[in-house]
Every structure is written in structure tokens, then in C-alpha cells.
Amino acid sequence: MQSEEEISNFLKSIETRCYKTTKHSFLKGETITTYLEKRNQLCILLNGEADLIRYDFNGNKTIIGQFSNNSIFGEALYPANTNNELFVLAKTNCEVLFFSYDNLWTKCRQNCSFHKEFSEQINKLIISQVVELNTRIELLTKKNIRDKLLSYFDILSSKKLSKTISIPFTFTDLADYLSVDRSAMTRELSHLIEEGFIEKKGKKIKLLYN
Amino acid sequence: MQSEEEISNFLKSIETRCYKTTKHSFLKGETITTYLEKRNQLCILLNGEADLIRYDFNGNKTIIGQFSNNSIFGEALYPANTNNELFVLAKTNCEVLFFSYDNLWTKCRQNCSFHKEFSEQINKLIISQVVELNTRIELLTKKNIRDKLLSYFDILSSKKLSKTISIPFTFTDLADYLSVDRSAMTRELSHLIEEGFIEKKGKKIKLLYN
DNA sequence: AAAAATCTGTTGCTATTGCAACAAATATAT
DNA sequence: ATATATTTGTTGCAATAGCAACAGATTTTT
User: Which residues make Cβ contacts (< 8 Å) with residue A42, sequence separation at least 6?
Assistant: First the structure.
């Protein structure tokens, strides 16, 4: 498997070819896409950060997905959903590659190597997306906030091979990611500190258990 | 896109080819695989039902995934995880196709059409797995049991295009799927009935709201 | 550099949920 | 057909988490 960076570079080099991809830039705060009647759309975030936002019937806003470099998203990867409106909002300035899900499976007329490689890269991205989603489900299925936090820390810790980790987003976003109330999460963090499980300085957290 | 059934038939027709897939049968209750040091393994459930089970450090058992026809699973789709043990257990008799993640990307020497088709089919399965996972995340991120249930019913209802739906597994399993306590979920179901939102007879549920 | 916006930590109150335990109903195995 | 295992419904109690509101810290914008 190639490195994250090689995939990045490959994707950024894509212009309009047999695949009919298009690149678009978005400013912070703009809507990248909505999940509504675009069943064939796939998108790759080339750089920047974006959130998948749900507004439910009560008007409550929830961040149900967070995208960063090389994240793949789009309505094609979502259940057809009647009752919620889903938006992808640019959290920072973003560059996004758009293409059609159908195009992935139609044979290239020229049978070009570009076509083949693009298709392989997309598949790898999709698989890493699956890993991401499974990671999140692991966390979401923990029964309480404490276990969600500790499991999350463990994942970061084993990725970094270190007991000192750094939360890659704000605590507000972390609460959304774990789908818990922010203040309840902060309370639980305080308890973990009191009880000697962790030390915390800003976004740096040191795990004191083994 | 081909029908579910065509994909099924294609997969069942696979013997040992350039891809080196192997087929295995399992009896109800047997362990299909463990997620431990098999980072390259991918599996497709050809028929039967299986659960992905997590035992955490406290020995608590949680069903974190439920697989049925054409579900794709395997450690390759999971985060490398130190603290939990994951098992896939056959809930009924099962037939499972095993192959290696690596093989998906290595070029076929014979450049055979079988190779190409297999690879495409796998990708489609993976994409439908992504849709499944996103569906579950939609549900898991709802803040309370009531919303989880109603959203779940809505999804079934819009799939079936009917206000009368049938829960495809036991209520015990549904509670696991939504990651809530079973008795608390039953209580909430009773409230929904009392308040006139739904009618319920066994696994048949009729939605009384619009 | 000042102003505005966002994020963080805290706390009281309350609703929701999990847990435990049990009986009745179903489903499965012998 | 009978025995065994599993699923379902119910309830009291306790723990947990959500909500609301606010002040201080930090970051971003102008």
C-alpha cells in the first residue's frame, strides 16, 4: 500500500479525464453538498476539514461525520433518508473532488491505466473509510462516557505508540464525535483526573494506567 | 448495478482461481474468525447469520456488528485494537468465503476477466457495507432511545414503502444494534404504544404518525 | 490591539437509562 | 410431546447523562 501522501498527490494531480471528475474550492462556512437527490455523488476532500451535519425534525443540529484529508463521502455512501436533512459544511477552506459513483463501474473506453489506478485508489480510500466508521461504532457502542473516552484515548495511544496523546480536535467536536453532551463529557474528564487515570493540559492528555 | 441475487450467485460460483479464495462451512455457535493478527483477512458471508462480538476488559459482551447475506467483514476493515477481543460467531449455520485483502490489489498475471469482475463485486459489497455502517451511526448518534427507535422504524418503513414494518431480528438483538439496554428499550416501546405512536403485535409494528 | 466569537469548565436540577430480578410467552432441541 | 433454552415484558431503584446557564479562557476577526 502506498503512503497517505502518495495517494494525496495522485488525487491532486487529477484533471478532467475519462472519469469526468471536477475539482471545486470552498470557503470556510460554505455548503459543500447536501445529501438529497444526489444518489450517485461521491466526493473526496483533498484538503481542509468539513463536517457532515444533520438537522432533525426538531431542528436539532448534530455533527454525524467529520472529514479531513482524503476522506471520501457523498450521498452514494448514505442510506436514502426521508426525515433528516444532511449537509456537508466546510469547517475550513476546502478543496473537493467530485465524481459519479456510476463512473466507477463503467468500463473505460480507452482502457487507460489512469482509469485503473484511479479506481484502485478510490477503493483504498473507501476501505480506510470503513475502518474509520468501524472505529467510531466501537466507541459509540460503549455504554457510558467514561468508557467512550478511555477507548478513544486507547486508540490514539496505540496509533502513536505513546501514553501521551494530543486530541486532534476541540473538546466540543470530540463530544459530538462520541455523541455525548459536552458538559457531561467535561465532567467525566474531571473525574478521570481526580481519580488519577489521566493528566490533562489543554489538548495533551497523559494516560496514567497501563 | 446488479441485483443482490446476481451478486450472490456470482460469489457462490467462485472456486479457487487466481484470487485464492477459500470457502468454509460453520455450524451454529462456531467461531468463524477472530480479529487478532489477521490484518489482511476479508470474509464474505455467503449465507447464514453471524455476529461480531466484543469482550471488553471487564468481560462485558457486546454485539457490535451483525452480518447476513453478502456482508463483508474481517480484520482488514477494523482498526488495530489492543484492548478488546473481537470474535465473529455463527448465529446460524454459515458458509463463508475467505480471501486476502492484499490480493485485491495485486494485478492478475493472466489479466483474466474473472479477476476483474471479482474485484468489482467486492467493491460493490464494500460500498453497501459503508451504507450499512452509516445507517447505524445515524441511529447511534440519536440522543435517546425513543429517537433511535423512531428513526430505525422510519428507515425500515421507507425501505418497504409501507407504514407497517416487521423487525428483522429479535428485540434483544435490536437493543444490541441500537446499543441500548433491552429492558429500557421495551419500556420505551410500551410508552410509544400508550402514547399512540405505534401499534405492535410481535415483530410487526404499525406506524401511526405520518 | 481591540472586539467578537468560540471554546472550556463548572454546577444544580431533572429526565433518562441501565441494572437486576422475575414471570410469562415463544422457540428450539431431544 | 416434553423438556430446555431463549426471548419478552415489567418494575423499583440507583447511576448516569442531558440540559441550561454562566464566567473565564482562548482563538479568530477586524
Answer: A72, A73, A74, A76, A77, A98, A99, A100, A101, A104, A122
Burial of A59 (0-12, 13-18, 19+ CB in 10 A): exposed
Q: Could you tell me if A70 and A127 are in contact, meaning their C-beta atoms sit under 8 angstroms apart?
A: no
Q: How far apart are CA A197 and CA A149, in angstroms?
A: 11
Query: What is the structure's pLDDT at A57?
Result: 64
Across the interface, do B140 and A143 touch by the CB < 8 Å criterion?
no
Within residues 18-57 of protein chain A, the ones with CB less than 7 A from nucleic strand D are 28
CB contact under 8 A, A131 and B179: no
Lowest-confidence region among B14-18, B45-49, B132-136: B14-18
Residues of chain B in contact with residue A82, where contact means CB-CB under 8 angstroms, are: 154, 158
The per-residue pLDDT for range B35-54, each reduced to its tens digit, is 877 778 899 999 898 999 88
Per the CB < 8 A criterion, the answer to whether A203 and A167 are in contact is yes
Tally of residues, chain B:
210
CA gap B129, A129 in Å, rounded? 11
Distance, in Å, from the CA atom of A81 to the CA atom of B158, rounded to the nearest integer, reads 8
CA dist B71 and B50 (Å) reads 9
DSSP secondary-structure letter at A203? T
In this predicted structure, the answer to whether residue A32 has a pLDDT above a threshold of 90 is yes
Which residue has the least CA–C1' distance to nucleotide D20?
A183
Q: Which nucleotide is nearest to B186 (CA to C1')?
A: D9
Which residues of B are less than 8 Å from A158 in CB distance?
80-82
Contact flag B83-A133 (C-beta cutoff 8 Å): no
Indicate the residue type of A41. Q
Find the angle CA(A38)-CA(A43)-CA(A44) to the nearest 5 degrees.
Answer: 175
B83, B133, B158: residue with CB nearest A80: B158
CA distance B15 to B50: 22
Phi, then psi, of A99 in degrees rounded to 5: -160, 175
Rounded to whole angstroms, the Cα distance separating B53 from B12 reads 26
Bases of chain D with protein Cβ within 7 A: 6-12, 16-21, 27, 29
Query: Per residue in B77-98, pLDDT tens?
Result: 988 766 677 889 998 889 999 9
| DSSP per-residue letters across A29-55 | T-EEEESSS-TTEEEEEEES-EEEEEE
DSSP code, position A114: H
